[in-house]
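Section handout 9: paired folding examples.
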Amino acid sequence: MADVVQDVVANITENITESSGNETGRIPATPEGMAVAYSSLVIMALLPIFFGSFRSVKHHKEQAESGEQPETMSHKDAAMFPLIASAALFGLYIFFKLFSKEYINLLLTGYFFFLGIFALCHLMSPLISSLVPAAIPNVPFHLRFTKGSGEEQEYLVDYNFTSHDLVCLTCCSVIGAWYIVKKHWIANNLFGIAFAINGVELLHLNKVVTGCILLCGLFVYDIFWVFGTNVMVTVAKSFEAPIKLVFPQDLLERGVAANNFAMLGLGDIVVPGIFIALLLRFDLSLNRNSKFYFYATFIAYFLGLVATIFVMHMFKHAQPALLYLVPACLGTPLSLALIKGDIAAMFQYADHPDELNDDSGDLDENEVFDELDDFTYEDHPEKKEDSKEPSAALPATTTSTKAAIKAKKDK
């Protein structure tokens, strides 16, 4: 009798545990739910690249008109980036293993709260300003924060804004507060999309070669950390910050309270995106009234993303998206440029051709000669007056240096 009672109690306990697990656990994804989730992720990935690319053209023109010194990535920077990213990724992995992820995520949440608000403000300011009622005047403000005085005065902050910008900041702060309190996936995606668009707009690759080096390096990086270890997947699942786009696969069953998410990292959007944006600027430089390479590579990115999702679904394993995106985004424009005869122009194109580029090894003969002349005349001022032609008054060493530079340039 006692054995029977124990069996009944065990069965009841098992049923209660199973029922509780079903209530609190994730609802299995249905084919319809997965289709909605992955379609939404693809759309959310394409929009930042498309709009960010065209915004990058505007930003590039503004830089050229204002004479602003651009910050571009050199070949060395591109080659080192995967190593730096690997160190950062592994460092986060160690942190999550040694310390409680709640404290780390709390710190990161505060950081991305402010970063996300400003990114969203930069994106939404024109729209919100147009919606502000006329009753609210658009009053300009100028914020300055200086260090030192007189000739040693240095501007640490020099920022112009308006009262409409303050309205925009307030609206974006509400979204930020929503993200901090609820960590809701919609707020996460708003910040993530803002980061992606701003990244594609503001991060510029100066040359196609630099983009090829960067993408090839990250191609190896992504494959190693996803297939070779569990580091990438562990960090992605533990890292509660808007550095990834998520969409619930159980949205149809649970609505906005769904929690069974599919995800896509922002790196898989921004890194190919800045290369595609460079191709758009290259298209415009050809003056053909066509955006052939941009649209071709944009479609290739879409197909690569679809291939990533298909393979992931077939093998039921996380896939390094760059494994499919890099061949698509590099192979397509380079192959088409080779067919159309634009390959030389593509590799010679530079966003900022007047900028001295140490990677190219090119020497500006006139600038170097002028420097040599000035240097020589400072040391030998009497010879500048004795000679009508500067080169005749130069010492033999300087003249031979000029000849060597010219010979190198001719080669």
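Moving on to protein 2 of 2.
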Amino acid sequence: MKRPLALRLSAVSAALALGAAAGIAALSMPAASAATSGATGYATQNGGTTGGAGGQTVKATTGTQIHAALCGRASSSTPVVIQVEGTINHGNTAKVSGDSCNTAAGVIELKQISNVTIVGVGGGAVFDQLGIHIRESSNIIIQNVTVRNVKKSGSPTSNGGDAIGMESDVRNVWVDHVTLEASGGESEGYDGLFDMKDNTQYVTLSYSILRNSGRGGLIGSSESDLSNGYVTFHHNLYSNIDSRAPLLRGGTAHAYNNHYKSLNESGINSRAGAKAKVDNNYFEDSKDVLGTFYTDERGYWQVSGNVFDNVTWSSTGSKNYPAGPNPTSNTTVSIPYAYTLDAATCVPDVVSRTAGANTGLKVSDGNCTPQTPSPTPTTPTPTPTTPTPTEPSGTNLSIGAGSDGSSKADGTSYGNVRDGNMSTYWSPSGSTGSISIKWGSATTVSSVNIREAAGSTGAVGSWRLLNADTGAVLTSGSGAGAISFAQTSLKKITFEITSSNGTPKVAEFETYAS
């Protein structure tokens, strides 16, 4: 009799502990690296998926900084590459507001945006109990990250319990070299690891690990949600999953060179007219790995080159239509993109050496041998010549106003930025921080001048200028000096330093009406 998922996980943990006690060394994980190569599968169609290629690269170590990078763009479609390192969790993920974003606390919210890459770098990126939600968005790449233990019930909750969830008119998403994992099934508070619904199309999941969950993922939330599809799954490991690997309602999916191990109840569940092309996969120690299950709304499949190693099959009956024990095709599926198949017999080995986060983004060469892809060549963009902004004129509105900030280094003061004295200054307690000017009533401002203290010129790196009344980003850029923006009436304006070259020292934060 099959044990509940939570008990199976306990057994796995015990086995790992026993191995450690016996002196079996754990494999060390190579350092994560930035994105290379390009999208594959259905993500190459419909114009392709390039994410934030060609845009600014921003480093983030918190969820709030990820949201800030989205909100700091000139528009919701301005390309950006967000390099993430460290643990992202509820404690460091707040809502950030701006014209180029629509974020929320307690989840990484990619809503109503496009042209974004999120990639783990350095020591790796872990989204702990915090899901990634993609909604009404397009041209998104998520690469080299781990998302774990996202719950829909219990505490804390995030993203409806999905590790990565997509819904509502999503197009062109490539998720690559990620590790998605839970610690149980629905009764333990978890939902799907990789869900798509409500008109999500042109998605590829490649070289990834999905494990220890009751539900792998779905394409379509109900038998009437049939506008999803054109999804590719290749070189992934599904391990210790009860069902939905994936559940496919309507639409078309292509699954090739995946390793399915310990699918405990069912695997690829094609139903409601869906079509699945299933090529050169390795199914191991599993049950009912392909068919239509839990419904009489039948789906279809085209199979070739698969290995079924210790796979058991149930009997055909009401709402249960397994493809085995001798799976044969009942449809044909035309694939519009080029791809190379590894032999199914080598899939467990090549997937074990390439799939998941922190594996060096290795891929198969098509002959069962892992390789590190070369970065896609790019032509350097000429540095534009930007005219030096004219220093503002008129009355410095900061004199006589108030001020505050996020932090201050010893011996510095918020008030030093509005005293008209270049020999005094404010510094954050670290390499980044924010300083604000505030008034008792609404004041019209259209330009500021950030003056660095003597000896620290060039220390201010990238920054955002915020309407602190609303959280809206007025403008963003890099380097201190004169900054102009659309005339705005506000009570508080914030200069937020998001990167620096040394210790920033702001002597004066001048504000002007024109």
